[in-house]
Write a structure and sequence with these properties.
Layout: E1 3-9, E2 14-20, E3 25-31, H1 40-58, E4 63-70, H2 78-85, E5 92-97, H3 98-107, E6 112-117, E7 121-127, E8 130-135, H4 147-164, H5 170-178, H6 184-193, H7 196-200, H8 203-211, H9 215-239, E9 246-250, H10 252-255, H11 258-271, E10 276-279, H12 286-298
Parallel strand pairs: 1-4, 4-5, 6-9, 9-10
Antiparallel strand pairs: 1-2, 2-3, 6-7, 7-8
Helix pairs in contact: 3-12, 4-5, 4-8, 8-9, 9-11
Length: about 300
């Protein structure tokens, strides 16, 4: 049976899946991390092994195309490195940025915008041949509405209360307790000494307290939704898709948090009443099949 492979190379694991030419999932496999920024040699070995796992069972000659979605692939010469490493395999290989892989997975190759909000955030989209983006500049310069941003806003609230000599709110006290910070200076030290994933994890304090009805936490999540709505609105105008935009969302902040998503959707709909929204939990590997199908259709 002929098939397509889609590979989602992430910071934690590499997921590969084989799909029939009709889009039926045939087999999935998972290996170690696939982000070359972590360790290029090990990431490449994990990507290669994920392909070999599928070739072993389904046959390499039957594979029509391998589509990889790789985080950070546009940095340095990673694209060339991957092509060189995978040169021995027979099927045609296509490498996409992981964000565009997710776009193909959720929008099936059609025009539309994709809003990604997890640890960081970015908005990408395409319309009538034009591709563009808004945001995605990292935690120091952007990542509006992301997990990092939510945590950062709460941390700033703690520092503001300290500077004003005010009593900490219940949410602010919860943050200090959760991180075992005895002073704000320990909190500040943690932020500057930690990776962005560790800081973003503090946003779970906000999520937990919001589920218990804490107004400050709810407001922080709503503000995140508004920021993301502003980002996608900028892209919609930028690519001229304002009449009836199609907007898909992915990432834990938008997929798993109803407060953020509902605020986001309501704000976008207020500007674009004819907007269509896609929110579903789907593997990015599906983007490989959608990419292949799109290429075959266009030939």
């Amino acid at each position: 049976m002929k098939y397509i492979i889609g590979v989602d190379s992430g910071g934690t694991s590499t997921k590969a899946a084989a799909y029939s030419l009709e889009g039926q999932l045939l087999k999935e496999t998972q290996t170690g991390f696939g982000n070359l920024l972590n360790n290029a040699e090990e990431a490449l070995a994990n990507i290669r092994q994920s392909l070999l796992n599928l070739f072993e069972e389904l046959g390499e000659d039957n594979c029509q195309m391998v589509v990889l979605g790789v985080a950070g692939v546009d940095s340095g010469d990673f694209r060339e490195v991957i092509f060189e490493n995978l040169a021995p395999i027979k099927p045609e290989t296509v490498i996409l940025n992981d964000a565009w892989m997710a776009h193909y997975a959720l929008l099936d190759g059609e025009d539309g915008c994709l809003v990604i909000s997890g640890t960081g955030s970015i908005v990408i989209g395409k319309f009538e041949g034009l591709e563009d983006r808004v945001g995605g500049y990292g935690n120091l310069l952007g990542d509006e509405g992301s997990g990092y941003d939510i945590a950062k806003e709460l941390i700033k609230a703690v520092l503001n209360a300290f500077d004003k000599g005010e009593t900490y709110s219940k949410l602010e006290k919860k943050l200090l307790k959760e991180g075992d910070f005895s002073t704000v200076f320990e909190l500040v030290k943690f932020v500057y000494a930690s990776g962005k994933d560790q800081v973003a994890n503090l946003s779970m304090v906000v999520v937990e307290k919001a589920s218990q009805g804490n107004e400050q936490a709810i407001q922080l999540l709503k503000e995140a939704g508004l920021k993301l709505a502003n980002q996608v609105s900028m892209l919609i105008e930028k690519i001229g898709m304002h009449k009836s935009p199609k907007v898909a969302v992915t990432g834990s902040v938008l997929v798993k948090n109803d407060i953020v998503y509902e605020t986001f959707m309501k704000e976008v709909k207020s500007k674009y009443p004819n907007g269509e929204f896609v929110r579903k939990n789907i593997s990015n590997t599906r983007g490989g099949y959608s990419y292949y199908k799109r290429q075959v259709t266009q030939k």
